[in-house]
Specification:
Helix content of chain A: 40-55%
Largest sheet of chain A: 4 strands, mixed
Distance between the termini of chain A: 47 Å
Largest interface: A-B, 39 and 33 residues
CATH superfamily of chain B: MetI-like
CATH topology of the largest domain in chain A: D-Maltodextrin-Binding Protein, domain 2
Number of strands of chain B: 0
Number of helices of chain B: 12
CATH topology of chain B: MetI-like fold
Number of domains of chain A: 2
Number of helices of chain A: 21
Oligomer: heterodimer
Helix content of chain B: over 70%
Largest sheet of chain B: none
Strand order of the largest sheet of chain A: 2-1-3-12
Radius of gyration of chain A: 24 Å
Strand content of chain B: under 5%
CATH class of the largest domain in chain A: Alpha Beta
Radius of gyration of chain B: 23 Å
CATH architecture of chain B: Orthogonal Bundle
Number of strands of chain A: 12
Shape of chain A: globular
Distance between the termini of chain B: 46 Å
Structural class of chain B: mainly alpha
CATH class of chain B: Mainly Alpha
Structural class of chain A: alpha/beta
Chain lengths: ~500, ~290
């Protein structure tokens, strides 16, 4: 017995020792993972180095550098060194990722083995993508359940999880937590300055801190930076603002449509209230803020120009990097809520605080069904998302790789890369709370998604530009959604939408 | 040489013509009669359903068409006036004539998309140099956020970019004019204004018509400036036909409907430009 214990102890020591040796070896060879070294796993550096893909060429269509394009190219280079494969990476602007893959898909061709896009492409791409083989799915033990669901259609995973996305609030801690500012705000408005709990509070604070130099840098600052540019993801920003007013936990069965009747809900008073707030927001964004796309929003908040912002993680992570002018001066919180939520069954407002996290779509990637290099492709994706690469990637804001593994919700992951402990804790608490929420909204993933979102962007853009009132704009959107439903077929949309509704209603 | 041999020599050109012009047009017409979209990638037959939708249920297309007409006519008119004036200036013996001729051509030599990105930065309301300068005078125009100013911004960029082309054509026309009418006018003691109105302008009429039509054809396809500068916004204030067709076709992937709009737009443009050319000929060449 003692001999057995001794042998197993020795074996464990040798195993751990050998892994540590690998970690040093790979960390030395690949500076990107110097902080952690290799992390054992099915697709670790060590395992990949055992593969021989010499003479094989992998083609990838990804986003422009840096967001997602830079890590794709970096991991392609590493993969080439480890396996001998040749990897050709094409960079494409975000707006063209869908069509650049879809045109050859529909023509029955596969010029790219791997295509990057967004998770809400899944419904229309899935027929052209190869399901992720079970052996890869089995090793995703640390990926959160919500991100497994987002990458899958029913029980089949089509998109390999490489990124996790959600919208949340970012704010300037040096203002909101500043006792002097709190006293000044109280004296001037009679209200407490705190992390805004509702969109109304958000608006009041943003308007108050708009157009004057509150950080003493000699330049005026503004209330909020938001994605308001038509056809540049503005519809996602609107859904974020709408969730608290329209996602009623007591009326399951659809956020965008009533699943039973397939009647669009987009012009109900909840959405109209959100759009009314958003039109008001035009007065507290920086000059030209109505034309801000995602990049402008990141630069504006990250450059210290605004008090608030809400969108993807990238701006927050970028603001926390060493070269940021506002490092450790930013805080994260869930999207503001509302003091009332629309009840479509009673046709009235339910009074009481409501909050609904929006798990907005994020980066997604799949392997073409017609690819002749599926084995290499899945190994590449598995390598892309391996433990060492993932930990290094999530700390670089411009990479666009955001938390989607359970381990990412530990504050140590972030303090290890130099974040202030309080900021890190607040950040991971925000993300973890969103994961735990039972009143979540997931992105629309139905046939014709682009048409629905484009119609919404057009309608809301008209309201922001003052061309239509919020009610008129959303009535126009609802009419367009009805027309799309008629063209696509309400039953087709219902079948697909039911999966999203099941996720929202916590049935998946 | 008999007929068959002649046909063989024509064949390569004919094949290219069929490949790059006839086939795409026929395919577009066929596509316009289908419901091809992202979830139904089939060349099925839906009759004239898309055309009915376009003519009865899509005011946005017609709004974008009239907006395009306004932008195209305004920009080409301004390009013609400025281009002709500049060409007239360097046609005469002035100092540094060669330098100015090259200088006025520079905008045309630059890449439109890159220049529009630079213009976008220039017009940026909070970070751009233009408003930084104007703030000295206490004004901060919303160049890209106000529907009216956004249209003016597009006109400014288009005029800046393409006046050079008009300048080039007009200068070439001026340099090719015969000297005798000008000598006769000088002998008659005509003032510079009369010389321009009664000699230069009528003699330049044919080339003016050609230049205006070429620029109108180009301006009616305006897309890159709108795409980069405003994305059709704010709201739909600067959305043009080509940008709208792009959204429906390559963003929403409604290929069948986008083909319907493209074909309709092609027909409208052929008819309108023919009418415009005839009117211009009648007005400018009445003498």
């Amino acid at each position: 017995m003692k001999l057995k214990t001794l042998i197993s102890t020795l074996a464990s020591v040798l195993l751990i020792g050998s892994q540590a040796a690998y970690a040093d070896k790979w960390g030395d060879q690949f500076p990107h993972i110097a902080a952690t070294g290799d992390i054992p796993g099915m697709c670790s550096y060590e395992e990949m180095s055992k593969k021989d893909y010499s003479g094989r060429t992998l083609t990838i269509n990804t986003h422009a550098i840096p967001v997602m394009g830079e890590p794709t190219a970096l991991h392609a280079e590493q993969f080439e060194k480890l396996t001998g494969a040749k990897v050709e990476v094409t960079h494409t602007p975000a707006g063209d990722l869908y069509s650049k893959a879809m045109v050859p898909f529909q023509a029955g061709q596969a010029p790219y083995d791997i295509v990057f896009g967004f998770s809400n492409f899944i419904n229309e791409w899935k027929r052209y993508l190869a399901p992720v083989p079970q052996e890869y799915v089995d090793q995703m033990t640390d990926v959160t359940a919500s991100h497994i669901a987002i990458a899958s259609w029913g029980d089949t995973m089509y998109q390999y999880p490489v990124d996790g996305d959600r919208h949340y609030l970012k704010y300037r801690k040096d203002v909101i937590d500043n006792p002097e500012m709190q006293a000044k705000y109280k004296a001037d408005t009679g209200n407490d300055l705190r992390v805004p709990q509702t969109w109304k509070e958000y608006a009041e604070m943003a308007a108050y801190f708009n157009g004057w130099d509150w950080d003493g840098d000699g330049e005026p600052e503004y209330g909020s930076a938001e994605v308001m540019k038509k056809d540049d993801l503005m519809y996602a920003a609107f859904y974020s603002r709408s969730a608290a007013y329209s996602k009623n936990p007591s009326t399951p069965g659809g956020f965008f449509f009533d699943l039973e009747t397939m009647k669009p809900l987009i012009n109900n008073p909840g959405f109209v209230e959100a759009l009314t707030d958003w039109v008001e927001a035009v007065s507290y964004v920086p000059p030209g803020g109505i034309n801000f796309g995602l990049g402008d929003e990141i630069n504006s908040f990250g450059g210290g120009q605004t008090l608030f912002s809400f969108s993807w993680d990238d701006a927050f992570v970028a603001a926390m990097q060493d070269d940021s002018p506002i490092k450790d001066q930013v805080g994260a919180a869930q999207l503001p809520g509302a003091t009332k939520v629309w009840n479509r069954e009673t046709n009235s407002w339910d009074e009481g605080f409501n909050q609904a996290p929006f798990f907005v779509w994020g980066w997604a990637v799949g392997v073409a069904d017609k690819s002749k290099n599926q084995d290499v492709a899945f190994d590449y994706l598995c390598f892309f998302a391996n433990g060492a690469n993932h930990q290094a990637d999530i700390g670089i804001g411009r990479f666009g790789v955001n938390p989607f593994m359970e381990a990412d919700f530990e504050a140590e992951v972030w303090t290890d890369i130099g974040w202030d402990a309080q900021v890190a804790q607040e950040y991971v608490d925000t993300l973890a709370d969103m994961e735990k929420s039972t009143n979540r909204v997931f992105p629309l993933r139905v046939p014709g998604t682009f048409q629905f979102n484009s119609a919404l962007a057009t309608g809301t853009a008209k309201a922001l530009a003052g061309q239509l009132s919020p009610q008129e704009a959303l009535d126009e959107v609802a009419a367009e959604w009805e027309a799309i439903l008629e063209r696509v077929g309400a039953d087709n949309v219902r079948d697909a939408y039911a999966i999203g509704v099941a996720m929202e209603d916590n049935k998946l | 040489m008999n007929f068959k041999h002649k046909f063989v020599f024509l064949l390569p050109g004919l094949i290219v013509l069929i490949g790059i012009l006839i086939f795409p047009i026929i395919f577009t017409v066929r596509l316009s009669l289908s419901g091809w979209n992202s979830f139904n990638p089939e060349l099925d037959f839906v009759g004239i359903k898309n055309y009915i939708r376009l003519f009865t249920d899509d005011p946005r297309f017609w709004e974008s068409f009239f907006r395009l007409s306004f932008l195209a006519v305004t920009t080409v008119f301004l390009q013609y006036i400025i281009g002709f004036a500049l060409a007239h200036m360097v046609w005469k013996d002035i100092k540094f004539k060669r330098f100015f001729r090259v200088l006025f051509l520079i905008p045309m030599m630059t890449t439109p998309v890159i220049m529009t990105v630079i213009w976008r930065t220039f017009f940026h309301e909070s970070l751009g140099p233009l408003n930084d300068f104007l703030s000295i005078f206490g004004v901060q125009p919303q160049w890209l956020s106000s529907p009216g100013l956004a249209k003016i911004s597009i006109i400014i960029v288009e005029v800046w970019q393409w006046t050079s082309f008009m300048f080039l054509l007009m200068l070439a026309g001026l340099l090719s004019l015969p000297k005798e009418p000008f000598l006769a006018a000088a002998i008659d003691g005509a003032s510079p204004f009369k010389k321009f109105m009664y000699v230069t302008f009528p003699l330049m009429a044919p080339i003016s018509i050609g230049a205006i039509i070429i620029r109108l054809i180009e301006a009616s396809k305006i897309m890159d400036t709108v795409f980069v500068l405003t994305s059709g916004g704010p709201g739909t204030a600067t959305e043009t036909s080509s940008f709208y067709i792009f959204i429906k076709g390559l963003r929403e992937f409604q290929m069948g409907y986008a083909a319907t709009m493209s074909f309709t737009y092609l027909i409208i443009m052929i008819i309108s430009l023919t009418i415009i050319a005839k009117v211009l000929t009648k007005v400018l060449m009445k003498e």
